[in-house]
Amino acid sequence: MITRTGHEAQIRDLLDQFPVVGIVGARQVGKTTLARRLIADLPRPVTFFDLEDPTDERRLTDAKLALAPLRGLVVIDEVQRHEDLFRLLRVLVDRPDNPARFLILGSASPALLRQSSESLAGRIAYHELPPFRIGEVGTGPDTVERLWLRGGFPRSFRAADDRRSMRWRSTFIRTFLERDLPQLGVAIPAATMRRFWTMVAHYHGSVWNHAELARALGVTAPTVMTYLDALVDALVVRRLVPWFENLKKRQVKAPKVYVADSGLLHALLGLESSEALLGHPKSGLSWEGFALHEVVHRLGFAWENCYYWGTHGGAELDLLAFDGGRRLGFEFKRTSAPGMTRSMHAALADLRLDRLFVVFPGGGRFSLHARVEAIGLERLVAEGL
Fold first, then answer.
1. Ordered structural domains, the chain, with CATH
2. What is the CA radius of gyration of the chain?
3. In the chain, helix, strand, coil percent, each to 5?
4. Please, which residues bridge with residue 104 across strands?
5. 3-class DSSP state of 203
6. Contact 24/36 with Cβ under 8 angstroms?
7. Residue 267: Cβ within 10 Å count
8. Residues 6+ positions from 79 with CB-CB distance below 8 Å
């Protein structure tokens, strides 16, 4: 069992502060397992509802009658299946001397987020649970390579071999498209979404061109954006927006897209083994996305405070993040000997970066410039900046 101690501690802190805490994440990422580990050590009474269990679903037919008498911690899994609960939770947590706190679990969706923000404003805090990260599985080179290839979904990462891992991810993709997206209110044919998600995989780490995909799919550009929003809201795709400076340069205004889990990316591209991955044209961009997600998670950056930067003249920066008052830049290079580039000099000058870090595989660390440092991904995860 790989324990997720950091996430457990953060959720406990949130439960001490907020009457409702939501754990959101992609399907099969480990939300239920994490919740059950949390409640195993709690001295207070705990009541657990799993809305995929028909018995529990029937228990909440009259939700007020079922929930109002409860004390201690109430856990509701797959809460997006019962959207009306949010309005009721507001009533329950606003009671004088409220005897219960609520831990709700669900896949992020427009309906889930909209209902909670409207009904539980100021009463709910969300914690996003990502797939496994390096800090949770270990920083050994073989372990990191396996995590990159298979991704961080628990059953994929821990499979007996690469073939079984690939089989699990292929099944996950099919089930996600045929069952999970419709349950989240996405009324798009599974075959269409499969084709679209595969196209997104080929755009992984690249600037998004919705008009090109619209032509390929034979739909309108707004329709393509609706498809992308659905995958972003379900936390299986990340959209990294561009940063603009007041420069006399034409800057790129379209976002970049990343498949959020490297294992799902490789399944969509049909890459089962390390040999197939390393020989594929997307290998470098795959590692860039893998490392970018690790850095954002390890350093605690909020995705809404993360950007990329690019100009039509060719200068670019893979990741720009704001840490307090500091501007931090990150470049991701799958090479053993990274060096300075013209883009890095341009980013330092145009973006007024305080520091720029070139992240590469391994555990080394050395200076490239007065404000530029090369640091191995495993070392960054282990030590921070």
1. 5-128 (3.40.50.300), 140-383 (no CATH)
2. 22
3. 45, 20, 35
4. 22, 76
5. coil
6. no
7. 26
8. 22, 51, 85, 104, 105, 106, 112
In whole angstroms, what is the distance from residue 68 CA to residue 65 CA? 6
For residue 18, the SS3 value is coil
Q: Is 30 exposed, middle or buried (0-12, 13-18, 19+ CB in 10 A)?
A: buried
What value, to the nearest 5°, has the Cα angle with vertex 125 and ends 32 and 75? 35
pLDDT digits (tens, 9 = 90+) for 112-134: 666 777 788 889 999 999 999 99
Identity of the amino acid at 355: R
Q: How many CB atoms lie within 10 A of CB 27?
A: 20
User: Rounded to 5 degrees, what angle do the CA atoms 205, 173, 8 make?
Assistant: 80
Alpha carbons 267 and 278: distance in angstroms, whole number: 14
Give me the residue label for tokens 């009457």: 19
Name the one residue in this structure whose structure tokens are 């679209």.
196
At 302-340, the pLDDT tens digits run 888 899 999 988 899 999 999 888 999 999 999 999 999
Which two three-digit tokens encode residue 52? 């995929």
CA dihedral of 66, 67, 73, 78, whole degrees rounded to 10: 80
Write down the residue that tokens 């609706």 correspond to. 226
* Lowest-pLDDT range of 55-59, 83-87, 187-191: 83-87
- CB count within 10 Å of CB 6 equals 12
Q: Give 188's contacts (C-beta < 8 A, 6+ positions apart).
A: 181, 226, 227, 230
- The string of DSSP letters for 286-350 reads HHHHHHHHHHHHHTT--GGGEEEEEBTTS-EEEEEEEETTEEEEEEE--SSS----HHHHHHHHH
Sheet containing 237-242, strands listed edge to edge, beginning at the edge strand earlier in sequence? 206-207, 256-259, 237-242, 306-310, 316-323, 326-332, 355-360, 372-376, 365-369
- Do 377 and 288 contact (CB within 8 A), yes or no? no
Q: What is the DSSP letter of 79?
A: G
Question: Quick check: 2 pLDDT over 70?
Answer: yes
- pTM of structure: 0.93
Helices 190-202 & 221-233 angle (0-180, nearest 10): 90
